[in-house]
């Protein structure tokens, strides 16, 4: 059925009103599964005892939340306090360590006055220190681990510069340190003992060995010869004269193998760095000719 102005009967205002009244009547009817009237869960319908229990539970729950917040806050305060204490302790210990390192303390060397530098180092120690960049590569590739480094407390010989202590570890003439040096502090030399013994690379000379006759076992009447056996270039750097008396030759490069294997303590042989060659006479060290002349007489 179509009413005036072409509007369907379902959409007419009168029909819509009738439909809404019917829906309200259905909603007012009692449902068999749901009681009619106000909800039993409202506060006014809950017994007084149950209401008190519920309020107490809520207060306890709120109190537990407050306690958790307080505990969390105290824990945060404790962690911050602990962080501050630990940071202060680390700062104080670091300052003490730096002050200790900054103090100038004596360092024991095999030859007082100048350190024994790696092979091919410049004879002028000041020049070597200016060329060395303290990279530490020479000590990293060292075959025998003989290259050591000065600490931050060393001022005269250059902090963090390499040196050798042959009594602990001596040089095996592997020449790796010279090949890895990125600057001109050390000059590259091939690993060839025959060419080294032939004197083809005079720049690798580190120093000269000196025998202390007062403590050498061979000069005291006992047969030793450890220094000759340990030398990588025997009969070129050192030779034995009857009866097994060690004599240092000009071919000595100062590697320190004789010093490391000397059975005497303190050692009966030491290395004079080449930077001290100019004061050889001042140290009262006899020359090779003098030693051979004394032995011949």
Key descriptive features of the protein:
6 strands; mainly alpha; 37% helix; 9 helices; 297 residues; two-stranded antiparallel ribbon; two-stranded antiparallel sheet; single chain
Q: Could you tell me the mean pLDDT?
A: 76
Radius of gyration: 47 Å
Provide a count of the helices. Answer: 9
Distance between the terminal alpha carbons, to the nearest Å?
153 Å
Taken from the alpha-carbon principal axes, the silhouette is elongated
The major sheet is characterized as: 2 strands, antiparallel
Order of helix and strand elements from N to C terminus: HHHHEEHHEHEEHEH
What is the strand tally? Answer: 6
Task: Set down the secondary structure blueprint.
Blueprint: H1 13-28, H2 48-102, H3 125-131, H4 137-141, E1 147-149, E2 162-164, H5 176-180, H6 193-197, E3 207-211, H7 226-230, E4 238-241, E5 245-248, H8 257-260, E6 269-273, H9 288-296
Antiparallel strand pairs: 1-2, 3-6, 4-5
Descriptive overview:
With 297 residues, this protein is mainly α. It has a domain at 125-284. Helix content is 37%, strand content 8%. The protein contains 9 helices and 6 strands. A two-stranded antiparallel sheet has the order 1-2. The protein is elongated, with a radius of gyration of 47 Å. The chain starts with 12 loop residues before the first helix and ends with a helix.
